[in-house]
Design brief:
Layout lengths: L3 E4 L7 H26 L7 H33 L4 H35 L3 H30 L1 E4 L9 H12 L5
Parallel strand pairs: 1-2
Helix pairs in contact: 1-2, 1-4, 2-3, 3-4, 3-5
Amino acid sequence: MALHRVDLEHLTGVSLVDGLIHQIVDLLYFGFLAAAVSLGLIRSRVTHAQLLHYYAYGKGASLALLAAASVAGLGIFATMNRYWLQGAVIGETLCEVAGNATSLYFLFVLPIYLFPQIFGVSERKIRVAVMTGAIAWLTVNGVLRFGLLARYGVLVSFSRCSVPESRPERLTRLAAAEFQPHP
């Protein structure tokens, strides 16, 4: 079975249309998380719009922190790569992991503590709704990504990266190319 990669950032070849498609898929992707959480709170005073607003804010805040962590990681990599390449890659990777951890915090941990105070719903009900929503969201994500890959050989890419290698691999390759002697 051949592997077919579907990159949502370059689906049609028209950057304006591709960017719009990518944004719509991202909105649906995180809107589904809010919808899954709201199903657990169906008999409470919390509306789907309130949850969608929070999750949009949470994703925006986590993206801002991810961008700051990426800049810090690239700064670490840029200053350390000439002296200690492995340490530079490790430092940059740790910054990326810390940036991605903020997404977990804003989307799953913080709602458990904030929602009872904001919406007046019991913490137990919020915890069950958030955990059930997280499990449903991750399950659908796994089925879409890995199910399509296993069954049809289709790899759906949600990233803006057009190179199918990870960031540490790419940084290591670029740094190694910098140290190659020129003929």
